[in-house]
Amino acid sequence: MIRNLLVDNGINPNTINLNYVQNSKIDQHSECLAEAKSPRILFTITKENIHIPKKNNFMNGSITIYPSFSGYEKTIRQAMCLHEISHIVLQHTNDNDILSTIISEQKNIPTSDIKKSKEWKQLIRIEEAEAEIVPATQCHIYADLLVTLRKNQFYPQCLFVNHYKKLKTISLYWNLIALLEKKQKINCEK
């Protein structure tokens, strides 16, 4: 399932490590079902420049699946995988690494403090919504999967009822497009 979604979204599956966490390894992620990290180019940023090493500068991305993931039906699991793959496609890990590093260097603030700020938490909420809105606009199957996910799975402190409403609206647009195409085909056949 994950491999097919990666390929469908233009990602080489060989650049993504799949990790399955065992019950004994659960710690701060007990609420988490899955998480993703984009493939990355390793770099250092200083006030003067960005340095990318010439060798060994690539790090595979990853999708980590936590034990609670397996307790959901297949449709919900597919939608969760799509959500995580969207984070990879949208390069959220890279954006966040670069942004936090630049702010840290320029303002002399520890990255850990930046990531505790209300502004950073708002950025994460935007990225979580984006990881579902963007794929929903690309394909009616994705839209329907994500509507089913958010109808059945609440995302505490992050995605709210208005987000579900947006996904449902996108799904309805896809249904309208299909209806109009069907009507046009019937008219053309007359």
Report on this model:
This protein is about 55% helix and about 10% strand. It is mainly alpha-helical and about 190 residues long. It has one domain. A three-stranded mixed β-sheet has the order 1-7-2. A hairpin with a 4-residue loop joins β4 (about 45) and β5 (about 50).
Topology overview:
Elements lengths: L1 H7 L7 E5 L13 E4 L2 E2 L2 E2 L4 E2 L6 E2 L1 E5 L8 H16 L2 H16 L3 H4 L3 H21 L1 H13 L8 H29 L1
Parallel strand pairs: 1-7
Antiparallel strand pairs: 2-7, 3-6, 4-5
Tally of alpha and pi helices: 7
Q: How many strands, which pairing sense, and closed or not: the largest β-sheet?
A: 3 strands, mixed
Spatial extent as radius of gyration? 19 Å
Give start-end ranges of low-pLDDT stretches: none
Strand line-up of the largest beta sheet: 1-7-2
Could you say which overall geometry the principal axes of the C-alpha atoms support? elongated
- Give the number of domains: 1
Number of E strands: 7
| Structural classification | mainly alpha
Quick gist of this model?
With 190 residues, this protein is mainly alpha-helical. It has helices spanning 2-8, 74-89, 92-107, 111-114, 118-138, 140-152, 161-189; strands at 16-20, 34-37, 40-41, 44-45, 50-51, 58-59, 61-65.
Keywords:
190 residues, mainly alpha, three-stranded mixed β-sheet, 7 helices, 7 strands, 56% helix, elongated
